[in-house]
């Protein structure tokens, strides 16, 4: 391979075609006919919003915006090779190891495609969030109308999923909150809800080795009072067994996801949720700072009653934030990066085995410049790695990525065609179009010289 040096600018006289584009965001403006009235300084909503092919009337509660609505359906956790996709696969893998010997199937069902548009009944009432609770306010949620909102947590689906007959499941999806904006908070993020219910038999027989052969153990007792350790009605032994199952499931999960957690400190912090009691947050310490990864607890029995169950089950539930965990797993410094289309970010996560562990390398803050190069060659194709070497020799560190995006054979003239996408980006400045075009022309020139190709 010839070592190429770029000492001087060579004028280029032949015809050329380049496609120069910069990255765009996924946000489509004004898809939903939401307008801004600069005089009244307020947002004007159409009478109806069409979301997921359904019309929703708007009212004085409507406070969604174009940017937020444009995230519906993007489902980052389902986009192949996205970091949240890998994390979802790892959650799937971990929970599929629990096997139901009686049903001969995995214990946990995994639901990851429920619409984020839910009713206030689902998001709040079904899980016992009081009518005047602060988490219902307009300033904390994105309402479509008074009765409909973008779910603020995946807990909104607990009752529907239990009603449908499931007794152990994960529910994964995008959630929406009018929250702080900082490197770890974003108005759209992803949660994974986990729920496991136990009957008396499952709870006590499964723990015979711990409890001995006591067959008088019960989940519910007649005179049980609510206190810091348990709900009214629950026996302490049932609650302690469910708590042990919950905490073991979660600590073992994080041992697999973050194998270094054994050297990090972790802790359970007492907290309160309207839908669990007792409740905890799980936190881990990194560089002296504590990070909350999830909230969890023993499900309020009233939630199980809302799901149509009688006094024959007790269960745990947790809700974890996918971004928080992926940021720690891969060393991603800012939550906004999950939404980027920047291939400098996305290409770092292209691998088939989701358990593959990588550390994210910061991409440049300067914009990418994308140019394609198409060429005709003879009966033998160029080996892409020869082309990559040539591009790197000419473009040096300004080349972020080179991808073969198209290749075909034309039997008529017995020639191969290849198209490469070259992504230029500097680590320390914004490149000008002119500068990129010069390098690009140089690459074309040397391609012709070295491979005898015809630039298309
Ligand atoms: C909840 O959402 C509860 N529904 C969790 C739960 C489920 C508790 C079942 C008990 C039983 P919380 O608001 O703390 O709780 O959010 C849970 C997790 O989501 C947090 O621990 C954090 O990891 C993540 N999270 C919360 N807000 C944001 C945000 N704005 N951006 C990114 N991640 C967030
Ligand atoms: Mg919390």
From TrEMBL:
One GO cellular component term:
mitochondrial matrix
Pfam families associated with the record? FDX-ACB, tRNA-synt_2d
Which InterPro entries does the entry link to? Answer: aa-tRNA-synth_II, aa-tRNA-synth_II/BPL/LPL, Fdx_antiC-bd, Fdx_antiC-bd_sf, Phe-tRNA-synth_IIc_mito, Phenylalanyl-tRNA_Synthase
Domain Aminoacyl-transfer RNA synthetases class-II family profile residue range list: 85-362
What keywords are annotated for this sequence in UniProt? Answer: Acetylation, Aminoacyl-tRNA synthetase, ATP-binding, Ligase, Mitochondrion, Nucleotide-binding, Protein biosynthesis, Transit peptide
Entry's localization field? Mitochondrion matrix
This protein's record includes keyword Transcription: no
Q: What is its EC number?
A: 6.1.1.20
Biological process annotations from GO = phenylalanyl-tRNA aminoacylation
Q: Could you give a GO molecular-function term held by this entry?
A: ATP binding
Catalytic activity, per the record?
Answer: tRNA(Phe) + L-phenylalanine + ATP = L-phenylalanyl-tRNA(Phe) + AMP + diphosphate + H(+)
Q: Do the record's keywords include Nucleotide-binding?
A: yes
Record domain FDX-ACB: where: 364-456
Q: Which SMART domains match?
A: FDX-ACB
Role according to the record: Is responsible for the charging of tRNA(Phe) with phenylalanine in mitochondrial translation. To a lesser extent, also catalyzes direct attachment of m-Tyr (an oxidized version of Phe) to tRNA(Phe), thereby opening the way for delivery of the misacylated tRNA to the ribosome and incorporation of ROS-damaged amino acid into proteins.
State the family it belongs to. Belongs to the class-II aminoacyl-tRNA synthetase family.
User: Assembly and interactions?
Assistant: Monomer.
Protein's name according to its UniProt entry: Phenylalanine--tRNA ligase, mitochondrial
The organism is Rotaria sordida
């Amino acid at each position: 391979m010839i070592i190429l040096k770029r000492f001087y600018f060579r004028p280029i006289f032949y015809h050329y075609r380049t496609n120069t584009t910069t990255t765009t965001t996924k946000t489509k403006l004004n898809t939903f006919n939401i307008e801004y009235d600069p005089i009244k300084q307020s947002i004007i909503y159409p009478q109806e919003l069409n979301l997921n092919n359904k019309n929703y009337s708007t009212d004085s509660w409507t406070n969604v915006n174009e940017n937020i609505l444009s995230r519906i359906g993007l489902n980052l956790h389902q986009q192949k090779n996205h970091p949240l996709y890998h994390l979802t696969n790892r959650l799937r893998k971990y929970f599929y190891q629990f096997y139901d010997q009686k049903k001969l199937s995995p214990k946990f069902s995994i639901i990851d495609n429920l619409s984020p548009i839910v009713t206030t009944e689902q998001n709040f009432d079904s899980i016992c969030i009081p009518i005047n609770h602060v988490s219902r306010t307009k300033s904390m949620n994105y309402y479509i109308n008074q009765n409909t909102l973008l779910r603020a947590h995946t807990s909104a689906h607990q009752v529907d999923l239990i009603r449908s007959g499931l007794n152990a499941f994960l529910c994964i999806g995008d959630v929406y909150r009018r929250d702080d904006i900082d490197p770890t908070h974003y108005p759209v993020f992803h949660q994974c809800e986990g729920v496991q219910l136990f009957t008396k038999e499952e709870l006590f027989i499964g723990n015979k080795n711990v409890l001995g052969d006591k067959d008088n153990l019960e989940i519910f007792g007649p005179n049980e009072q609510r206190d810091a350790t348990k709900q009214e009605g629950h026996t302490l032994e049932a609650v302690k067994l469910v708590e042990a199952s919950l905490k073991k499931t979660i600590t073992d999960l994080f041992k697999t996801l973050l194998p270094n957690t054994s050297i990090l400190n972790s802790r359970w912090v007492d907290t309160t949720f309207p839908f669990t009691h007792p409740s905890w947050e799980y936190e881990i310490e990194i560089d002296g700072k504590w990070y909350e990864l999830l909230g969890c607890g023993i499900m309020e029995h009233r939630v199980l009653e809302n799901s149509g169950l009688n006094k024959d089950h007790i269960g745990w539930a947790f809700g974890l934030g996918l971004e928080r965990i992926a940021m720690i797993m891969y060393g991603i410094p800012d939550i906004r990066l999950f939404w980027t289309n920047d291939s400098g970010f996305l290409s770092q996560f292209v691998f088939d085995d989701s358990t593959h562990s990588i550390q994210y390398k910061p991409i440049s803050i300067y914009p990418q410049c994308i140019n394609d190069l198409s060429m005709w060659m003879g009966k033998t194709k160029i080996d892409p790695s020869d082309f990559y070497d040539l591009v790197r020799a000419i473009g040096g560190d300004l080349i972020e990525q080179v991808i073969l995006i198209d290749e075909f054979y034309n039997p008529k003239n017995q020639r191969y065609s290849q198209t490469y996408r070259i992504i230029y980006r500097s680590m320390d400045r914004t490149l000008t179009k002119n500068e990129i075009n010069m390098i690009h022309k140089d690459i074309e020139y040397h391609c012709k010289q070295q491979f005898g190709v015809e630039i298309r």
